[in-house]
């Protein structure tokens, strides 16, 4: 009886924390630099994402799919901070290979330090009308500017894989787990 009460209390606390974090993540605009509230929210959100349980194995014992359908259920309707290892276009749609990461304010500049995640990358798809906002080093300026999905894929894949590990992105997902917005973070 006591164990069930503790679990219920824990679940309630985690739910309240999650709802609070979701409310905070929607407060900033695209031109906002890092501040203490955003940094704390980003770190807590990224930590929660990294520690989320992987999908259960299929009934036949094989590993679960890591394609868009497996991620759709997990990230639908959320905003995630991620690394993007690769991007491609196929059948008129853009696909991104992502994994959760963390961002921290740079100690000396108005910029971000990216803390790479661990574990496998998962492929997610973008909606046709997904917004892409890029800052230096992928974009041409410190402040985010709009680019097409094709420009984004070209700029990302032109960089060596080792450079991509130092880049971080805020992704917004629709209710079906497709990316509706990509914003790269300014890193010097």
Tell me about this structure.
- The chain has 188 residues and is an alpha+beta fold.
- It has a domain at 77-184.
- 32% of the residues lie in helices and 29% in strands.
- It contains 5 helices and 8 strands; from the N terminus they run αααββββββααββ.
- The chain has a 5-stranded mixed β-barrel with strand order 1-2-5-8-7. A two-stranded antiparallel ribbon has the order 3-4.
- β1 (79-90) and β2 (93-100) form a beta hairpin.
- The model is unreliable at 1-68 (pLDDT under 50).
- Residues 33-71 are annotated as: Disordered.
- This is Lipoprotein.
- Residues 1-28 form the signal peptide.
- Residues 36-71 have a biased composition (Low complexity).
- Keywords: Signal.
Structural descriptors:
single chain; 188 residues; alpha+beta; 5-stranded mixed barrel; signal
Overall pLDDT confidence: 73
Count of DSSP H/I helices: 5
Strand/helix succession: HHHEEEEEEHHEE
Total number of strands: 8
> Helix proportion of residues, in percent?
25-40%
**Terminal CA distance:** 54 Å
Q: How many strands, which pairing sense, and closed or not: the largest β-sheet? A: 5 strands, mixed, barrel
Helices and strands in order, then pairings?
Elements: H1 2-25, H2 36-50, H3 68-75, E1 79-90, E2 93-100, E3 102-105, E4 112-115, E5 122-134, E6 145-147, H4 149-157, H5 161-164, E7 169-173, E8 179-184
Parallel strand pairs: 5-8
Antiparallel strand pairs: 1-2, 1-7, 2-5, 3-4, 5-6, 7-8
Helix pairs in contact: 1-2
Summarize the structure in short.
With 188 residues, this protein is an alpha+beta fold. The protein contains 5 helices and 8 strands, in the order H-H-H-E-E-E-E-E-E-H-H-E-E.
